[in-house]
Structure formats: structure tokens, C-alpha cells
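Re: the request from the purification team.
They wanted to know what the chain is likely to look like in 3D before they choose a buffer screen. I agreed to run a prediction and write the result into the notebook, where they can find it.
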Amino acid sequence: MSDYFELLGLPRRFAVDLGELERNYLGRSRAVHPDRLAGAERSAEERSDAAGQAMEVNQAYRALRRELPRAEHLLSLEGVTIGDNQPVAPALLAEMLELREALEEARAAGDRGRLDQLERDARAGERAELAELGARFSALEAMAAGAPERAAALAAVVDQVIRLRYLARYRDAFAEDDDVEGAA
């Protein structure tokens, strides 16, 4: 797996300067863009390599510009992959069930005001959880590689990422309301 931070010339940490990310992405993208080889006498293999590099730069940028994919990439660099069937705390499942039920009740009642409030609450909750994720990563990044408490800090980050995945799916459920209204 590629280290997207290294590829884009950024320090490997959760807190990313988005302006620096954008500048580094644009510079790297220009440097590897396949069109630079278009008029040159290049082999098909060289053009294919350039296209692959450009694709990887684009993939790195997409992963690092948003917090959740960035967190998942950092975890993968630590050797941690979160699967779709990862064990989840029962309290989180119960919370998500309650939120989904409230959403379905508001939809069934056609209560636009309640739907809007639930969506605002979902966005605010997600922002708070992202702030918590940032704090957990800061704590993890401050620890030495072999520190005994590092495993527990890493596990806390993984739990936070799992929580954020569920919250993101819940927040995405509000897009269904927008899609229905747009079709009407």
C-alpha cells in the first residue's frame, strides 16, 4: 500500500493543512499528468505508468482531504484494517437503531421540521465525533512507537472510526429525503 502522505509530501498525521494538501496535490498532479507525455516520443509502458501515477495521486488526494478516509488510511499504515463486519459495541447499535427509528417516524409523519432537526443534530454529532477522533489521533501520534499504552490508544481510534462510519451512514440517509423531494 502506498503512503498517501509521503506521495503528497505531507507529514503523516491526522491534522492536515488543507491548503498545503491542495498545493501539494496540484504540484504533484502536474508533475505526473499523462498529458505531459502526449507529444513526446514515449513508449506505451511509460504512458501507462504516468496514467497509473496520476490515478494514485488523485486517489491520495481524495483520501486525505476528508477526515474519515484519512483516518482509515492512517490506520491502514499502522496495519489495521476495519472490515464491514467489525464487532460493534451493543450500545452503539442501540443508539443507531433509535436514531433510525426517529428518522423513519419523522418520514412517515411527513414532519419536515423534525427531519431538518434530526439532520442538524446528526451533523453536529458527527462534528463532535470528528473532534474526538482528532484528539485521539493527537494522543496516539504523541506516543512512542513501542509505548505500552499505544495499543489501547490505537484501539480507541479504531472504535471512534467505527462509530463515525455508522454516523456517516445515518447522515447519508437524509440525502434520501432530498432525492425524493427533488423527484417530486
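For the purification team: DSSP finds seven helices and no strands in the chain.
Please add any questions underneath this entry.
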